[in-house]
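Weekly sync, protein design subgroup
Attendees: M.S., D.O., the rotation student, P.L. (late)

Item 1: inverse folding check
M.S. brought a backbone from last month's batch and wanted to see whether the design step gives back something sensible before we order anything. D.O. pointed out we never logged the input encoding, so this time it goes straight into the notes. Structure tokens as presented (274 positions):
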């Protein structure tokens, strides 16, 4: 960490970094990047923060659209989190997606920034119907670990802890973190970066909850298909993205004053756009 802490933090990524699931487009999205910036500010009150993330972006699009602007901001700290949207596409190459991430790791570290990223949790435990995608998650995580080792990137290993697949950390669409999930991600990044005051409390399980009977679980799966998977497939067939016509919510480095502080919504509610 630089003397006095990090002063210029830039976040690159897709909807998770933008903050979907934590607030809304009316009251403002918060998300793990905002929450992580707030943790940085506890160490360095003068930290400035930019968030270039846009929902729906593939890893290659993040590199093409966000890397240049990020480098222009001359960050001393950057988070790069992308790849889930790629995993959902019919054609997926873990090495190719990780290659896009590695290009960002290389460019940002070469510019003097400390880069932080994370591995992804087992999606098959979050959404049972997504179990066929588990091998993709594991493959991408393996490539991310190798790339981070080559470039000295700090990685938060969220995939190694069962709590990261607890439904209470996810919204109803099962792809975006809930407010509690975003808070845990921010804590994981802070812990990986060894920020003063951080610890491994984010890995602790939540209190036990009753397991729903099989028939209720089956009904929940059908509702998920109708409410989230169906509309997502419809957009793919029409060649549309949830991020069409959207731009970064915080394209310039600014002090943290005025960040949204959206209260946690009802459990299980969240946006339907992936």
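Designed sequence read out in the meeting:
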């Amino acid at each position: 960490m630089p003397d006095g802490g990090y002063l210029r933090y830039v976040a690159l990524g897709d909807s998770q970094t933008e903050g979907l699931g934590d607030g809304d487009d009316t009251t403002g999205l918060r998300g793990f990047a905002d929450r992580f910036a707030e943790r940085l500010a506890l160490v360095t009150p003068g930290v400035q923060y930019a968030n270039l993330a846009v929902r729906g972006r593939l890893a290659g699009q993040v590199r093409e659209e966000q890397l240049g602007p990020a480098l222009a901001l001359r960050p001393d700290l950057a988070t790069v989190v992308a790849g889930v949207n790629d995993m959902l596409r019919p054609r997926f190459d873990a090495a190719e997606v990780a290659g896009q991430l590695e290009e960002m790791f290389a460019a940002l570290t070469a510019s003097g920034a400390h880069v932080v990223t994370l591995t992804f949790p087992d999606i098959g435990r979050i959404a049972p119907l997504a179990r066929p995608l588990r091998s993709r998650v594991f493959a991408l995580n393996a490539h991310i670990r190798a790339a981070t080792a080559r470039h000295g990137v700090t990685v938060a290993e969220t995939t190694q802890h069962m709590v990261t697949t607890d439904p209470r950390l996810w919204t109803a669409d099962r792809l975006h973190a809930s407010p509690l999930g975003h808070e845990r991600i921010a804590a994981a990044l802070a812990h990986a970066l060894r920020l003063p005051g951080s610890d491994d409390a984010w890995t602790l399980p939540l209190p036990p909850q009753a397991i729903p009977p099989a028939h209720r679980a089956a009904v929940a799966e059908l509702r998920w298909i109708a409410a989230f998977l169906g509309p997502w497939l419809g957009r793919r067939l029409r060649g549309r993205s949830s991020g069409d016509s959207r731009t970064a919510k915080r394209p310039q480095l600014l002090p943290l004053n005025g960040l949204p502080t959206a209260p946690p919504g009802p459990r299980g509610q969240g946006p339907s756009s992936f």
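Discussion: Confidence is low (pLDDT under 50) at residues 262-274. The CA atoms of residues 23 and 263 lie 7 Å apart.
Action: P.L. to compare against the previous round before Friday.
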